[in-house]
Design brief:
The chain has 492 residues and is an alpha+beta fold. The protein has 3 domains: 135 residues, Methyltransferase, Cobalt-precorrin-4 Transmethylase, Domain 2, CATH 3.30.950; 186 residues, Heat Shock Protein 90, CATH 3.30.565.60; 87 residues, Arc Repressor Mutant, subunit A. It contains 15 helices and 20 strands. It has a 6-stranded mixed β-sheet with strand order 12-11-15-16-18-17. It has a 4-stranded mixed β-sheet with strand order 1-2-5-4. A 4-stranded antiparallel β-sheet has the order 3-6-7-8. Strand 17 and strand 18 form a beta hairpin.
Length: 492
C-alpha cells in the first residue's frame, strides 16, 4: 500500500521520526508543498523507503497539527492520516497546493517562505516570493499598472498587426478592453511591453549564431549576433528573421517538382519564440530571452520555469494543460493571430518537426525547465546528412558563400571597431548604425539621428569620427555615406 501511496504523491519527503525540537526540518517542506503543487510527508519511513515505524503515532499526530498551526502561516490545507505497514505505525501528511500564497514558516522572529527544488525545500528567492505574493492576490504581472502614461508611447507595430489580422483599425477603446490601459491613462505592464519603444528594459532578445557546436567555437566565436528591444511584436519578428538568415535550405528533386528541406521548421521556431516571449517570467530581472544557433541545433531560452512549478522534462507533453503566467499577453497574442487560446504550442512544435521530409527520431525537439528557466532545443534537420542525399541549387550555393563572406567581414568590422580609442557610448552608436545599415545601405545625418536618437550636432561629430577612422566613405549624393568594407590590416 505504501508503494502505491508514494507513487501517487506529487512530491514527497521521508522522516524516520517526528522532529519536535527541530520542527523546521520538516515544516519547511510543508511550506514548500503549499507554495507549489502540493506534496506528502511520510513519518516513520527512512530515506531508503524502509518502514521504521513510530512509537506513539497518536501523540505525533497531535504534535504535527499543533506545530503546523503555530508555525505555518497562513494555515495550509492538509490531510493527516495514520497507516500500518508490516505491522508498524506511520503517519502520512498530505499538503495541498495553496491558494493564499506565500505560506511562511515562522519562528524566532523570522518568516521564511520555501519552495521545492528537486527533492529539496529551499528558501524562495526574491523573484519567486514576488510570484507567490501575486498568486495569493490572484493577480499577474502583466495586468499590474506600470508607472508609464499611454500618451507618451506609440503602438504602430501593434496597430499594423491588428489591422493585418482582423482587417479593422484598432480603436482607442480596445486598449482598455484588452487590458493595456486603465481609466486614468496608465499603461499596464502588458501595454508597456507592447509599446514600440517599450520602457520595460529587461524585455529584450539576444540572438547569436555561434561558430561550432558550443560557445567556444575557435578563432571566430560568433558568426552573427544581434540584440533587439522594443515591442514584443518587434522581438518576435526580429527573432524569426535572425533564424531565417542564419539557416540554409536544401532541396531534393522529385519527378515533377522539388522538396524544400530547411535546417529548421519555421513553424516550430515561431511557436517556441512566441512561448518564450509570452510565458517568460518578467519578475526575473537581469535575464532575457536568448536564441543561440549552433551548427547542429538551435536553443531558445526564456527566464522562468513552468508556471505550475513542475519540470517539463518529467511531464507527458500531450497531457500538459494550458497554464498562462501572463494571461493578458496571451489573450492579446491570440487576438493578433500569433497563438491559440487552448495552448497547443508544444504540440505544434513537435508535429511540425515530425512532418519535415528530413526528420529522424533522434531529432525530436527537446524541452527542459527548472525553477528559473525554460529551454527548447530544435535540432538542425540537415546536420550530418551527406550532401549527395539532397541538392542545393547553384544560386543557393552562391548565396551561402556570399553570406559566409559577409559574416566574416562583419566580424572583422566589429573587431576593428573594438580597437578604436573612443568612448563606449560612441562605439555603441557606431555598432548600432552598422547593424542597421550594413555595407550596402547609404545613409545621411538624418538617418544617424533617427537610429541613434541623438540630435544634429552630436550626429555630425559621430560621423566625423567614423570618417577619420575610415569606417565610412562618401557615397553618391551630397552628405551621403556608406560603411566601408574592412581591407588592409584586417584579417578576415
Amino acid at each position: 500500500m505504501i508503494d502505491r501511496w508514494i507513487a501517487e504523491a506529487t512530491a514527497c519527503d521521508f522522516k524516520v521520526a517526528l522532529e519536535v525540537k527541530k520542527p523546521k526540518s520538516w515544516l519547511k517542506s510543508v511550506s514548500a508543498f503549499a507554495n507549489g503543487i502540493g506534496g506528502t510527508l511520510f513519518f516513520g519511513i527512512d530515506d531508503d523507503r524502509n518502514v521504521v515505524g513510530l512509537s506513539d503515532a497518536q501523540t505525533d499526530a497531535e504534535t504535527i497539527s499543533r506545530l503546523m498551526k503555530e508555525r505555518i502561516t497562513p494555515y495550509p490545507s492538509f490531510v493527516l492520516a495514520p497507516a500500518r505497514e508490516n505491522g508498524k505505525d506511520i503517519l502520512v501528511l498530505s499538503v495541498s497546493a495553496g491558494h493564499a500564497t506565500p505560506y511562511y514558516y515562522k519562528a524566532d522572529g523570522i518568516m521564511e517562505a520555501y519552495i521545492r527544488i528537486g527533492n529539496e525545500s529551499v528558501i524562495a528567492p526574491s523573484y519567486v516570493l514576488n510570484q507567490l505574493i501575486l498568486k495569493g492576490m490572484h493577480r499577474t504581472y502583466d495586468e499590474l499598472l506600470s508607472e508609464h502614461e499611454f500618451k507618451d508611447y506609440a503602438f504602430s507595430k501593434l496597430r499594423e498587426r491588428y489591422k493585418a489580422w482582423t482587417g479593422n483599425s484598432m480603436e482607442e477603446k480596445l486598449f482598455d478592453s484588452f487590458g493595456m490601459r486603465d481609466e486614468n491613462g496608465k499603461l499596464t505592464n502588458a501595454g508597456a511591453l507592447l509599446a514600440d519603444d517599450s520602457p520595460i528594459r529587461h524585455s529584450r532578445l539576444f540572438c547569436t549564431r555561434w561558430n561550432g557546436l558550443d560557445k567556444s567555437g575557435g578563432i571566430v566565436d560568433a558568426l552573427d549576433s544581434a540584440e533587439y528591444s522594443g515591442s514584443l511584436i518587434i522581438l518576435l519578428n526580429e527573432g524569426v528573421g535572425f533564424v531565417k538568415r542564419n539557416m540554409k535550405t536544401r532541396w531534393k528533386k522529385t519527378a515533377d517538382s522539388r522538396i524544400e528541406m530547411p535546417d529548421y521548421c519555421e513553424r516550430s521556431v515561431f511557436e517556441a519564440l512566441v512561448n518564450a516571449l509570452i510565458h517568460r517570467d518578467y519578475l526575473i530581472l537581469g535575464s532575457e530571452v536568448h536564441i543561440d544557433i549552433y551548427d547542429d541545433r538551435l536553443t531558445i531560452y526564456s527566464p522562468g520555469g513552468m508556471p505550475d512549478g513542475t519540470r517539463v522534462q518529467e511531464r507527458d507533453l500531450s497531457s500538459i494543460s494550458s497554464t498562462r503566467r501572463n494571461p493578458v499577453l496571451a489573450d492579446l497574442f491570440s487576438r493578433l493571430g500569433y497563438m491559440e487560446r487552448q495552448g497547443s504550442g508544444f504540440k505544434k512544435i513537435t508535429e511540425s518537426y515530425h512532418a519535415a521530409h528530413n526528420y529522424r527520431s533522434e531529432l525530436e525537439p527537446q524541452f527542459y525547465s527548472d525553477a528559473s528557466s525554460f529551454q527548447v532545443t530544435l535540432y538542425n534537420l540537415n546536420y550530418g546528412l551527406p550532401i549527395h542525399e539532397t541538392g542545393l541549387a547553384d544560386e543557393k550555393q552562391t548565396s551561402e558563400r556570399e553570406k559566409t563572406v559577409l559574416q566574416n567581414e562583419k566580424q572583422a568590422f566589429e573587431s576593428l571597431l573594438a580597437g578604436l580609442t573612443v568612448s563606449t557610448p560612441t562605439k555603441d552608436h557606431m555598432l548600432k548604425l552598422f547593424r542597421n545599415f550594413g555595407f550596402d545601405t547609404i545613409f545621411a545625418r538624418a538617418d544617424v539621428m533617427q537610429v541613434t536618437g541623438i540630435t544634429a550636432t552630436p550626429a555630425t561629430e559621430l560621423m566625423r569620427k567614423m570618417k577619420e577612422a575610415k569606417l565610412i566613405v562618401r557615397a553618391k549624393g551630397r552628405g551621403k555615406y556608406i560603411f566601408a568594407m574592412p581591407t588592409e590590416g584586417v584579417k578576415l
